[in-house]
Design brief:
The complex is a heterotrimer of chains A (about 160), B (about 120) and C (about 625). By secondary structure, chain A is an all-alpha fold. Helices cover about 60% and strands about 0% of the residues of chain A. Chain A has one domain (about 5-155). In chain A, helix 1 (about 5-30) runs antiparallel to helix 2 (about 35-55), helix 2 (about 35-55) runs parallel beside helix 4 (about 125-155) and helix 3 (about 60-80) packs antiparallel against helix 4. Chain B is mainly alpha-helical and about 120 residues long. Chain B has a single domain, classed as Helix Hairpins (Orthogonal Bundle). Chain B has helices spanning about 5-25, 25-45, 80-110, and strands at about 55, 75. In chain B, helix 1 packs antiparallel against helix 2 and helix 2 runs antiparallel to helix 3. By secondary structure, chain C is mainly α. Chain C has one domain (about 1-545, about 595-635). Chain C has 22 helices and 6 strands. Chain C has helices spanning about 1-30, 30-60, 90-115, 120-140, 145-165, 170-200, 205-215, 220-240, 245-255, 255-280, 285-315, 320-345, 350-385, 405-415, 425-440, 440-465, 480-500, 500-515, 535-555, 595-600, 600-610, 615-635; strands spanning about 65-70, 80, 80-85, 85-90, 530, 535. Chain C has a two-stranded antiparallel ribbon with strand order 1-4. In chain C, strands 2-3 form a two-stranded antiparallel sheet. In chain C, a hairpin with a 2-residue loop joins strand 2 (about 80) and strand 3 (about 80-85). In chain C, helix 3 packs antiparallel against helix 10 (about 255-280). Chain C is globular, with a radius of gyration of 25 Å. Classes of the chains: A mainly alpha (about 160), B mainly alpha (about 120), C mainly alpha (about 625). Chains in contact: A-B, A-C, B-C. The interface of B and C includes residues 78 and 104 of B.
Chain lengths: ~160, ~120, ~625
């Protein structure tokens, strides 16, 4: 594939990190602001698609992407099964406990007990699931874009 | 009447999308028609979140509520979740459909639906 | 802890295939053989858990197991008046469908061990198979309309991925593309119906919606349109004529074990039709009664069309799997007819007369159909495995080596034609008698369709198994795991054959009670009581054995040593006894009913043109049927 002009390549090199970081921000803050796993993952996949088009890069580690995708999914459903340890499938067993892993307990203003606490380390299993879904979506959408895009340009068999 | 404008847009999108799927022969155009019908369905679902006229702000429930006016409230959060799920399903379906159309072209050099008739009868 | 596990079973049965499906690609990167065994383990665990859940739900009286996601056993929380979380609710009908899906999947996975061994991408095959199983269970266990849409879409994506598995054939991609376009348009129409109901009522939980719809003063236009949309969309998934168009394509191109599971996925669509008609709209019959009866008539008309068009199109097919796919469509017509008759007379006095029997027959037929159709598709796969082609005209003489496959095929073919004593006869007898009381013409059409079914399977048996061996047929019997898979389903068929009343009492009656809101079970005996008569399979079997013994005795008394000599031994071709130069004659399968199809040419030409193969016309027929059904519901 032919790479695009130097202007496009330079801008891509500059903004790659910023877009990636923005996507990661949206994934991590999914339980506080609009966004979450799918939205952030789609943004990060967009940055990989930008790299594909701007640089014409045709050597992608499809095995690594597929492994990230499967492990994200496996961790997601595994977290659901871990809820069975408290006796209920898919139960949020981290929220409200004082665990350092997203389990902080926040004092609420009276009358707004269930309000958005605006604190990152709350939420229990919800931000963890956002993270895993984010991994899965970024790997899956990148894989789709890479396979379809390379196929269209080179006519080779994808996986 | 102005509040009903999104519903007219939904009907227009769905009708145009359905017309394309039924009438146009090129397979890629059929995929685009399906995308339009999906857009119409998603718009319909998200418009239902603002039912009741006075729901004006995003569905984030904080203790520092922005005062938008007397009696205004949050939009319903459920349709946002429904629309998001529908968009994700639409992405997966469109990707799969485009992959199949591409493989059909590669095997048979066919890109029109009325030539894609090997299975019939 | 185990008490808690059983309470969580509705969700765990859906989640375990997902867990195994997500792990399969990772294991497949290490070793493909390990991933196949891993997938088999997943299906075995799921089947075992499903049987436990089935025993829990079906052994008591009107037990409903429900599970709310994330609520920790507190039940469904309410915000204002609206329920807030997604709930799974498993009642008699859901457990019944779940048992069907688990059994067929078990047989199919054992079969597919050797069937897909020589293809690449085995780990992806098993991943998609487990995903399809999870989607099937999800569709029948869910208690929330939008969740039904999600599982519907997952099912269609998984099925299309599996249909396109044989990527060396371009037709596989064609079938997958057509089925995906068709199914996606239907899913989006269903999404519109969901939006309508949500905008009107504010929540989507099926049980609460039933209360809200039944609690109004009178039915509104929104409710009627939503019911019309939903019934048509799910009839599309089930494969009812005239919206069956992409189903034969997808059935014929998918690998054989996947087609067996595809039958259960279509029946999940049938389940959704019944769930929407009976549970969602059947709560309060004073208000919804008129609409329900129109819906019942819609189902009856769809059923009659499916039965008739399905079997007549099946008679002229050359591709063995496409022929069986048309038969699947035809049998779906029986189920729609039986339950449609029950729906039409729901709430009136006639329900206790024959409506309940019709529903029992229709729902019993679902399980029977999954078993014998699954078995038939697996035998078709075995034939294709050995013959290397799907064309009936090129197959021949496989019966010499494939004796076990032939026996399984005979069991399946007798069952589907409704020949006593097989299980197909039990459910068809219930349908015949009750539909005859409803309307004698429809009963007569049902019996005629059974006759034509037998005719087309005689054609398949003759073309594939009998006669001299055709060119290019491989020798020997199929591998043992394939025979084991077929034996699982055949064993269940034989159990259902000889104890139909027990099956009706334990499995079907709770399902009918759950749907129709009635109570009452048949007595425990070996005699199946229909409304007008009775049927005892063991007595019939004994009579058959007696007749065979008498025939053999008569034959032994006869003159030994008489064989055909002279003119009687030469081949006979349509009245001209010609001399053939000693070569064995293979008469292709298409020529068996040549006279019949030529005589019905005026019927066959427009109907074959109707099945044009152009995907735009498929969607056009869907939209037209949608228009007609909505018009009927709104105007009548």
């Amino acid at each position: 594939m032919r790479p695009m002009s130097p202007v496009v390549r330079t801008i891509t090199k500059l903004s790659f990190g910023a877009i990636f970081l923005f996507g990661a921000y949206i994934i991590l803050h999914g339980h506080l602001t609009p966004g979450g796993g799918f939205q952030g993952g789609a943004i990060i996949a967009t940055v990989f698609a930008l790299v594909l088009v701007a640089f014409g890069r045709d050597r992608w580690n499809k095995k690594l992407l597929s492994t990230i995708e499967s492990s994200g999914l496996l961790a997601f459903i595994g977290l659901g099964f871990l809820g069975l340890t408290t006796g209920y499938f898919f139960y949020n067993f981290i929220a409200g406990t004082d665990s350092p892993l997203f389990g902080k307990v926040i004092e609420q203003v009276s009358g707004y007990e269930h309000a958005n606490s605006a604190s990152l380390l709350t939420g229990g299993t919800v931000p963890l699931m956002n993270l895993f879904v984010g991994f899965e979506v970024l790997a899956a959408l990148t894989l789709i874009v890479v396979v379809l895009g390379l196929f269209a340009f080179k006519g080779k068999e994808g996986d | 009447m102005l509040g009903e404008l999104p519903y007219f847009a939904v009907v227009a999108l769905a009708a145009i999308g359905l017309y394309i799927v039924v009438m146009k022969r090129n397979l890629i155009k059929i995929a685009m028609g399906i995308t339009l019908i999906e857009a119409g369905a998603n718009l319909f679902l998200i418009t239902l979140a603002y039912n009741g006229g006075d729901r004006l702000s995003a569905p984030v429930f904080t203790s520092q509520i922005m005062r938008l006016g007397e009696g205004s409230s949050y939009s319903l959060p459920t349709p946002h979740a429904l629309t998001l799920t529908s968009i994700v399903i639409g992405v997966a379906t469109t990707a799969l459909l485009l992959a199949f159309i591409m493989q059909v072209y590669r095997k048979f050099r066919i890109s029109e639906a009325d030539e894609l008739r090997r299975l019939r009868g | 802890m185990s008490g808690d596990l059983i309470d969580n079973l509705p969700a765990v049965i859906v989640a375990i295939p997902l867990l195994f499906a997500f792990a399969t690609p990772l294991i497949g990167k290490l070793s493909v053989k390990l991933s196949r065994l891993w997938a088999l383990l997943g299906v075995v665990v799921t089947t075992a858990l499903m049987y436990i859940l089935g025993w829990e739900v079906l052994s008591g009286d009107a037990v409903v197991k429900s599970y709310v996601f994330g609520a920790g056993g507190d039940g469904l929380p309410l915000i204002g008046d609206n329920p807030a979380r997604i709930a799974f609710s498993v009642d008699g009908m859901s457990a019944f469908m779940g048992l069907i899906m688990a059994t067929v999947a078990f047989g199919a996975v054992i079969y597919s061990f050797s069937f897909v061994r020589k293809y690449s991408g085995n780990d992806k095959f098993f991943t998609l198979l487990l995903l399809m199983l999870a989607a099937n269970f999800g569709m029948v266990f869910t208690g929330d309309l939008f969740n039904l849409f999600v599982w519907f879409e997952i099912s269609s994506v998984a099925v299309c991925g599996l249909t396109a598995f044989r990527s060396n054939r371009g037709e596989a991609f064609e079938a997958a593309a057509k089925y995906l376009i068709y199914s996606t348009v239907a899913g989006l129409v269903f999404l519109f119906a969901i939006g309508l109901l949500y905008g009107q009522y504010g929540h989507l939980n099926i049980n609460y919606l039933a209360g809200a719809i039944g609690g109004q003063e009178e039915m509104m236009m929104v409710d009627k349109i939503a019911l019309g949309l939903m019934v048509t969309v799910f009839a599309l998934k089930a494969g009812a004529v005239p919206i069956h168009m992409a189903t034969p394509d997808a059935y014929s191109e998918a690998p054989a074990p996947i087609t067996a599971m595809f039958v259960t996925a279509s029946q999940a669509g049938l389940y959704a039709v019944f769930r929407v008609s009976f549970t969602l709209y059947g709560g309060n019959l004073d208000i919804t009664g008129n609409l329900i009866h129109i819906a019942g008539w819609v189902l009856i008309i769809l059923g009659i069309l499916s039965m008739f068009v399905g079997v007549t199109m099946a008679l002229v097919q050359k591709d063995i799997k496409r022929l069986m796919a048309y038969h699947a469509i035809s049998q779906t017509g029986y189920m729609l007819l039986g339950v449609g008759v029950g729906l039409t007379v729901l709430g009136t006095g006639k329900f206790d007369e024959f409506g309940r029997t019709a529903m029992t027959g229709g729902i019993f037929h679902i399980f029977n159909h999954a078993l014998y159709k699954g078995l038939l598709f697996l035998t078709a796969g075995a034939l294709i495995y050995k013959a290397g082609t799907r064309d009936l005209n090129r197959m021949g003489g496989l019966g010499r080596d494939m004796k076990f496959t032939a026996i399984f095929f005979i069991i399946g073919a007798l069952a589907i034609s409704g020949i006593p004593p097989m299980n197909g006869f039990s459910s068809k007898l219930l349908i015949y008698e009750s539909v005859f009381s409803f309307n004698p013409v429809i009963g007569a059409i049902a019996m005629l369709v059974s006759l034509l079914t037998l005719a087309s399977f005689v054609k398949v048996f003759y073309a594939a198994f009998m006669g001299p061996r055709a060119k290019g047929m491989a020798r020997g019997e199929v591998p043992t795991t394939m025979l084991l898979g077929m034996a699982v389903l055949a064993g269940m068929i034989l159990v259902f054959t000889f104890a139909p009343a027990l099956v009706v009492r334990t499995l079907v009656d709770p399902a009918v009670n759950a749907l129709a809101g009635s109570t009452g079970r048949t007595d425990a005996s070996l005699t199946l009581l229909t409304g007008q008569g009775y049927w005892n399979a063991i007595v019939f079997g004994g009579a058959m054995v007696l007749a065979v013994i008498i025939t053999l005795m008569v034959r032994m008394l006869g003159n030994k040593g008489t064989t055909a000599k002279g003119e009687g031994k030469k081949p006979y071709l349509f009245g001209n006894s010609t001399e053939i130069d000693g070569r064995p004659i293979v008469i292709p399968g298409s020529n068996v009913y040549w006279g019949f199809t030529k005589a019905l040419e005026r019927y066959y030409r427009p109907v074959e043109k109707f099945h044009s193969g152009i995907v735009n016309e498929y969607v056009f027929w869907f939209v037209s049927t949608l228009g007609v059904v909505i018009l009927a519901m709104v105007v009548l």
